[in-house]
Amino acid sequence: MTLRQRIYHMxxxxxNPERLTRTNLLICLLVLFAAGLAxxxxxxxxxxAHARLFRIAHIGxxxxxxxxxxxxxxxxxxxxxxxxxRLGRLRWLLTPSAIIDMIALAPxxxxxxxxxxxxxxxxRIIRILRIVRxxxxxxxxxxxxxxxxxxxxxxxxxxxxxxxxxxGSAALLYFAEAEAQPETFGSIPRAMWWAIVTLTTIGxxxxxxxTVIGKFCAAIIAIAGIGVIAIPTGILAAAFSxxxxxxxxxx
Length: 251
Hints:
Elements: H1 3-11, H2 22-41, H3 44-49, H4 51-75, H5 88-93, H6 96-113, H7 117-129, H8 139-150, H9 152-177, H10 182-185, H11 188-199, H12 212-248
Helix pairs in contact: 1-4, 2-4, 2-7, 4-6, 6-7, 8-12, 9-11, 9-12
């Protein structure tokens, strides 16, 4: 094999569907370690005491992942999805795994280019989310993604029903409670918070109806919401079940 082919087989899980290469195992360990450091960094006392160490570690991890990404980009010409096309590498850059890789590289540049608290906080969150990259190392993850994709139309219908239910609920409570509680239900956007909390059965208790009409509407909405929220839950449960069954019985 050529050098590019060797690198492709070392780094691309699709090229070795039966097992992970040592290189990808190392990458998984580094992703976990980097995510662990990012979690520790959110504790201010630890971050202040070891600020220099955290910065060196994050730059080191970021540089490693940048080099890995550039090698993947160079070896993408060997990917069957991109081979034989002049725009093969561009097509590879638009794949979900490549987009996740590019997002995972953002903390390196945020750390080097900004000292703003909010951007550094965002960089820590993205460092933790690097763990999502490990999903592509698993065939089971691919099966789950495919199963969910196959149920996309049912999910669209379920999500649309949820959105309409939330909007209708907010409108009803706005009608019933606007005069009694203008701060909480004085507009449909304000009432939307109550609708979301109620329909998802969280029930924080920070907003609730006080009028008779409002309570009556809320009771109907709460009962109806159980079924509406259960629709996408059932669809996802069926998709996961299909994926697991396919994993156990490929034929």
